């Protein structure tokens, strides 16, 4: 067996004076000594793999003498076995952790150590106290008032039938809008009723919101029209009457805004009455074009006129047909729908706020149709509302009869904290017939900030048993 380098370590390991652990029988050869040393160090643990012994070079000098049996086993493993000898298989090394690396110096303010992972012997800490603030639970989607829920589903189920050549006649299930001008906040919503949703019928109510003009002279119009149940064309009539009334108001918005800010109620009522009559004349002409009776192509119309002037709190309502006008004041609802006079019992002159008699024109005055700025009775230009028509020629070939229902008008002054609600008949009927609905809306809208669009839509959709028609509501919150 060839020895490499200095043999001092070999002489110390096999010193003749040292007692042999397993005396071997004579003759005592080198191979027998190797086998004896290997058998003696078999049960010792192997060195960690991270620090293998380095073989010293001849120039580095003799290595230090091993002081443990583990070092001796490492040295013996480095010695190649003799020819023909099979070295014993060492046992698997035990799992010894790697020596920890030198940890860096902790910062001046070390963050708190994370909580230990829970184990079988870990006692959990006490649960943190519950927050004191109570988070309100979200409102259910199928919210209703009354003793029992409504019959129909709360969400849309069937779409209305469509024709390829009449796609402009389609009506959305829900319309939502809002604005803020001057001292008021406006919210408007129109929703298809539960009955129409179930049967796949179109929404018969129409809603139109428009602003004409700029700055404080701007005029806001909200028009609501409700069609009849017994005609399949009334949703088209409702859309037509809203569009035509908006066109007429837009042409005369400057003068109308001036009259509202000046509180000229008599001029407003006379002029808006004439404008509404001519709008219904166009509606009857459209019915004739379609080959329908006027009763088949008609809709009730209710409008609000609001100025953007923060110093003006006059709110003007006008229209024809069923519906409701309500005011929430001091936490209670007031039904302020204008009362219709009974011709059989009406005595005396006109009532202030509901119109005034037209001013008389002198006998020598020229024809009002030829004088800009006057009407047939000598009133201001508001009476004509900018409607363009040739002189001495009626608006239509045959002057239409007045609408079947009388004209309604009201101009009132709002107070801070008031809420004005204009409703179609689908919302006005449950407001009058189900006290729990009025109480619920009063609790939600009194003494609070105006709701957002989504909240207002949810409020107007409060369902009531026995009321499944379309609902359209326009609310004005006064700051």
Automatic annotation (TrEMBL):
> A single Pfam family, by name?
PP2C_2
InterPro entries membership: PPM-type_phosphatase-like_dom
Chain positions covered by the region annotation Disordered: 1-164, 354-379
Cite the record's Pro residues compositional bias ranges: 45-66, 79-131
Q: Which residue range or ranges hold the PPM-type phosphatase domain?
A: 192-458
Report the protein name in the record. Answer: Protein phosphatase 2C domain-containing protein
Which species? Answer: Streptomyces roseicoloratus
Q: Recite the lineage of the species.
A: Bacteria, Bacillati, Actinomycetota, Actinomycetes, Kitasatosporales
